[in-house]
Amino acid sequence: DLKRLDGSGEDSGENPSKTEFEILSRMKLEMIWQILCGNETKLRETMDICVDTLSSNITKHGSTGALDLIIAFCEHEKDYPQRLLTDREDIMEHLRTFLMLDEDTRAGACRLVVFLGSKNPDIICDSVLEPLSSNLLDHDQRNLMIKTVETFLTLLRFDGANELLRRTSIGENLAICLESFQSGELESLGDFSECIFIASVLGGIVASDPAVLTKLLQNPSGSLGDVIVQILLANFKGDIRKTLLSRVTCDTIENVLSSNNETELRLLAEVLVYDHNFLEVLKKWSVADEQDYQDFQEIRLLADIEIMSLNLILRLSDTSVLSEVDLENVILPQLIKTLMDNPSQKFAALIMRLNSRAFQNEDFDMILDRFLEYDIFKESIQAEKETIARQKDDGDVVFNRIRGLPQEASCSRKYEIIFGDTLTTAAVKSEKVLCHPLTKLYFEVEILHTKGELSIGWISSDFEEGVLAGELKYGIGDDTESWAWRSRGDLGVNVILSRPWKANDVVGVLADTEKGCIRFSLNGRFDPGAVFEVEDTTVIQTLLPAISGKRAECQFNLGSTPFKFSPDPSFGSVEPILNSLL
Question: What's the predicted TM-score (pTM) here?
Answer without folding.
Answer: 0.77
